[in-house]
Design goal:
Length: 282
């Protein structure tokens, strides 16, 4: 990847710009609208949103006001946990389109798997949601479909269906690599996207990362983003600050050495959210 919009190709042949702009915890309204416009101004073409973030309307306004045509943008959203199952997912998808003011999405994801802690029939529930996702995909209203926060055992049933998930969006940053899930996805040609690539900001003061970043004359944020790319994982850094939005896009003029990649790969987990998809009760 040599520039912001070089693309990874999904299993269905669809291109995904290699860095996405994250919007989790971005306040709805003016902030969402302006930060999305700013990101697009700095060259981002991939915007990641979700119904849960409750800012789809602002994100949509940012997209509409960006001056860039819809077909040049790659827009993702996600179905929230209360909307699982075939019927509710179909309705939730339409609400998301309406909120964003769009007539199609580039990528629609199941936000979290139903898990066995909450549901005896968790696998059936996930398959019901997936049936809706498949129908939406076949109708052309989502150009690609996938999941988020799925571990291999959640993915297995979906991998037996006609249309397989093309993307899995997971928490991924130095100190939290979810190696088993990443390996499973790579083996099954599921692209991995990294949410919280900066550990939701928690990694930014890490001493090891600071030392390595200084060697390249880069910030820790830029180091984390580049480290994702060198793992062939799509980072989705979030910021509402124009200077940081710009900074996070400038990661194509350096390469992390194999030795430094190895040091970062072996860092301990002290920055993960602690949300285990099998344990969460939302
Ligand atoms: P803000 O949105 O106020 O600019 P993640 O992408 O891992 O979820 O991290 C997002 C957090 O990191 C936000 O608090 C964001 O702050 C902050 N952040 C994003 N980019 C940078 C950067 N380049 N330097 C410092 N902090 C950043």
């Amino acid at each position: 990847m040599y520039k912001l919009n070089d693309a990874y190709i999904m299993s269905n042949g669809t291109a995904v710009p290699c860095i996405g702009f994250g919007t989790w915890q971005t306040p709805e309204g003016q902030t969402a609208e302006e930060s999305v416009k700013t990101a697009i101004k700095y060259g981002y073409r991939h915007i990641d949103s979700a119904a849960l973030y409750e800012n789809e309307a602002g994100v949509g306004k940012g997209i509409a006001g960006s001056g860039i045509s819809r077909k040049e943008l790659f827009v993702t959203s996600k179905v929230w946990n209360t909307e699982r199952g075939y019927k509710k997912t179909m309705a939730a998808f339409q609400r998301t389109l309406d909120n964003l003011g769009l007539d199609y999405l580039d990528l629609y994801l199941i936000h979290w798997p139903a898990n066995k802690k909450q549901f005896a029939d968790w696998e059936e529930i996930n398959l019901g949601t997936w049936r809706a996702m498949t129908e939406i995909y076949k109708s052309g209203r989502a150009k690609a479909i996938g999941v988020s926060n799925f571990m291999p055992h959640h993915l297995e049933a979906l991998m037996q269906t006609e249309i397989k998930p093309m993307v899995n969006q997971i928490e991924f940053h130095p100190g939290f690599m979810q190696q088993e899930t990443v390996n499973y996805c790579k083996k099954n040609i599921i692209l991995v996207e990294a949410y919280s690539p900066l550990g939701t900001g928690r990694m930014l003061n890490n001493k090891t990362l600071k030392e390595i970043a200084a060697k390249y004359d880069k910030s820790v944020a830029q180091l984390c983003i580049k480290w994702c790319l060198q793992h062939d994982i799509i980072p989705l850094p979030k910021s509402v600050t124009a200077s940081r939005i710009e900074e996070n896009s400038k990661v194509f003029d350096f390469e992390i050495t194999d030795g430094d990649m190895e040091i970062i790969n072996s860092m301990e987990d002290f920055g993960s959210s602690g949300k285990n998809p099998d344990e969460v009760d939302f």
